[in-house]
Amino acid sequence: MTIELVQMKKKRTGSSISSSSSDEDVSTLVPLKKLAPGKLYNVLEHMKLSCEQLQQNGYPFWDPSAKQAVIPLTVNNQRDFVAGNDLFRKCARCRKGFSLNADGTMAPGRCVYHHRPKWDPVQRRPLLTCCNKPGPSSGCIEEEHHVFNTAWEDTLWEFMVTPSARGETDFRSKKVYGLDCELIHTLNGLEVARVSLVNMKGKVVLDTFVLPTYEVISYNSTFSGVTERDMENAISLKACRLQLFQYINSETLLVGHSLESDLKALRLVHHNVIDTSVLFSIRKPDVTIKLSLQTLAKEKLGKTIQNAKCGHSSIEDSITCLELLELRPFVAVN
Ligand SMILES: [Zn+2]
Ligand SMILES: [Zn+2]
């Protein structure tokens, strides 16, 4: 499949672009946040991931016969969910391999890593923005435990599909929200610890801390901004999903950056998605490069995000994803 980028400002011809947006006069673009909900949905609908793109990017699918989620294998991803007898894990920080104990617990292991390595595409090597060390080195931070992203396969049974619309007047349908989660490391890989849902006007409609199901290995506070103390106000994942379902159904358009990670952590199957990591990806003949939200915010919006010493904010990230849509520069055409 060849994917080409077509500039929306070009005259729309042919069948490659959804007719739902064809009535939009690009010379008088109205800010998205000023559009009425129904119109907003129509303008954004063509940016949705296709079924093929959902698969390519590892979004969860629902297997009705097995009554569980299925995660497509992507080119770069290792398996996120493994069988109960597969105790091998790879540390998400230092990349070392190790084994869990047979009961799923973990012995301490020296984890030495750099916490802010960034890939330099020009020099084709990591830049160590954490400590600015010039050459290769094992790390500038040492922790007592490794961390990992892999969860047990039986977690796939805990997934839910977002609820269907309750008739044609369901107010949740055709709504657009930015969604972002902060994730922490537990004995069952990455679990959600905070969920934020923001509407197109930048208003936070839901922001809640979520209790992990398994023992926490690391709150990943430098990045997640979540601390053990936040858990005093946390609700269960089940309660969190019920709160989410007050605003979203299967027809709600969710906007996020690499939203497949958030949906996997929420144990949720949802296919009405705009993914800014895909929308703004750089496609080369042999490789597709996804830019971080921080890089996109800087390059496209001139905005500095994820810079706080106390970690990221899922509200800030959600708002940034929605702001990126205001650019409406490209549409991916299969
Ligand atoms: Zn490690
Ligand atoms: Zn470092």
Automatic annotation (TrEMBL):
Cross-referenced Pfam families: EloA-BP1
Gene Ontology biological process terms from the UniProt entry: negative regulation of gene expression
Where does it localize? Answer: Nucleus
Organism domain of life: Eukaryota
GO molecular function terms attached to this record:
exonuclease activity; nucleic acid binding
Q: Which residues form the Exonuclease domain?
A: 175-333
Please tell me one Gene Ontology term that the record gives under cellular component.
nucleus
Q: Which UniProt keywords apply?
A: Exonuclease, Hydrolase, Nuclease, Nucleus
Family of this protein: Belongs to the REXO1/REXO3 family.
Which protein is depicted? Exonuclease domain-containing protein
Q: Which organism is it from?
A: Caenorhabditis brenneri
